[in-house]
From TrEMBL:
This is RBR-type E3 ubiquitin transferase. It holds the Pfam family IBR. SMART domains: IBR. It comes from Viridothelium virens. It comes from the Eukaryota.
Length: 435
């Protein structure tokens, strides 16, 4: 029987039960309910409930079928709108105009959450799997509370090719992943891990540019997994991180990066709060006067001189060398000599100081048996000059509490160990942070 015939049967049962209850009430001599009346009343409740489930199921199937047919058109319109928004934002950025939030961006964000999952269109369940024939009571109850959970969506992905993410070690349909041409084997990232890497790179400059096995990951490869806001934020941060002598708004409540096109005659104008900043001392603009040396900056410089700190010759960050050689690599990727500040390998300064190397050596010896094993293999034991193996030569530590990652400091159950220097890193820092 089809769905309409099943509903008709339930309606006839309900009508019969109502007639029996009415007849029993008419023939009842006292106020006490007879067993037959109670039985028919309970049966009537069950029949009405089952009929409602059938009707809800029919509505759910109709909605599912309608959504499945409308999604391609909706997705095509969204893609066109997203591209228009990105093009407009890029034009504003290159023209040096201030970005304004528009209603279309909020609508796109809402649509992205409703119709897109990980940058690709949601697979609407096929209504063919919801048979319109008669079903059992427990099946009716399940279909009545129909929802598109992750488990329901997974049913539509059965049979699709799948790949394992190198970061989270979970399997995903191949169309929800990207494959990078790493050596000696390609690495696969799921949409969440790839998008997370690009979002983290906008907050942690040591992760910029996003890379795997020292090879930069093109934005075009991951852009389909990013929201328009995340893409625009990454592009803005790319301009910031690629600028050597950066200028930020001197307003403490703003501190927005000011790109070079907005700096004229050493006066940087913030497009967010309209504050003018001196591009030389990074303080408030002096309105045509000479830039005085800020006393607080000079006191910090004096303290740095007493402590032996140095400043990056590119971004002017303050840097302290505690252990290791004099080869410094700043977060802005500038490599210089810690002693004289010259670009690395362009001076005649010594490469190390014995006392600092001794401190580094003591730290290595404290790392269980790794230093001894490295000496027995005859490998280089200084992580500062180690090239760090590329490929699958890194050793995975025993499962348990492996301690913190050397770079990010996060504790993991297991880490990857460099076969040359014994340094222990997490998978993300091993693939994305080593340069």
């Amino acid at each position: 029987m089809d769905a309409e015939e099943v509903e008709l049967v339930f309606k006839l049962f309900i009508e019969d039960a109502q007639n029996e209850i009415a007849l029993s009430e008419a023939n009842r001599l006292s106020e006490d309910f007879r067993d037959s009346e109670i039985a028919f009343s309970e049966t009537l409740k069950v029949l009405r409930h089952q009929l409602q489930l059938l009707q809800d199921r029919r509505v759910a199937c109709g909605l599912s079928r309608a959504c499945r047919e409308d999604v391609p058109a909706i997705e095509e319109a969204l893609i066109a709108e997203e591209q228009a928004v990105r093009d407009h934002e890029l034009a504003l950025r290159f023209a040096g105009l201030r970005k304004r939030k528009r209603p279309i961006e909020r609508q796109l964000a809402r649509h992205n959450g409703s119709y897109r999952r990980g940058g690709s269109a949601v697979d609407i369940p096929d209504t063919d799997q919801f048979s319109e024939g008669p079903v059992l009571d427990d099946s009716l109850a399940t279909l009545a509370s129909l929802s598109w959970s992750h488990a329901e969506l997974s049913k539509t992905e059965v049979g699709l090719p799948r790949s394992t993410c190198i970061i989270c070690d979970e399997t995903f349909p191949t169309h929800e992943t990207i494959e990078l041409s790493c050596e000696p084997e390609h690495h696969v990232y799921c949409n969440n891990c790839a998008a997370q890497l690009f979002e983290m790179a906008t907050k942690d400059e040591s992760l910029y540019p996003p890379r795997c096995c020292r090879n930069p990951i093109p934005l075009e490869t991951v852009q389909k997994f990013l929201t328009p806001e995340a893409t625009l934020n990454f592009l803005n941060k790319s301009v910031e991180f690629n600028t050597e002598n950066r200028t930020y708004c001197c307003n403490p409540s703003c501190s927005t990066f000011i790109p070079q096109p907005d700096i004229q005659n050493n006066v940087a104008v913030c497009l967010e709060c309209n504050t003018e900043t001196c591009a030389f001392c990074k303080q408030e603009s002096h309105q045509g006067e000479d830039c005085p040396q800020d006393p607080e900056i000079r006191s910090v410089v004096r303290l740095a001189g007493d402590k032996g700190w140095k400043r990056c010759t590119s971004c002017r960050r303050m840097i302290e060398l505690s252990i290791g050689c004099f080869h410094m690599t700043c977060l802005c990727k500038n490599q210089f000599c810690y002693l004289c500040g010259a670009r690395w390998k362009t001076c005649n300064c010594p490469q190390f100081e014995e006392d600092r190397l001794l401190d580094e050596r003591n730290r290595q010896v404290a790392q269980e048996e790794r230093a001894t094993a490295a000496r027995n293999r005859g490998f280089q034991n200084d992580p500062h000059v180690c090239g760090h193996a590329v490929g699958n030569d890194w050793t995975r530590t025993r499962h348990g509490f492996a301690g913190p990652c050397v770079f990010c400091g996060t504790n993991y159950r297991w880490l990857l160990e460099c076969p040359d220097c014994g340094m222990r890193l997490c998978v993300r820092c091993r693939l994305n942070r080593i340069v």
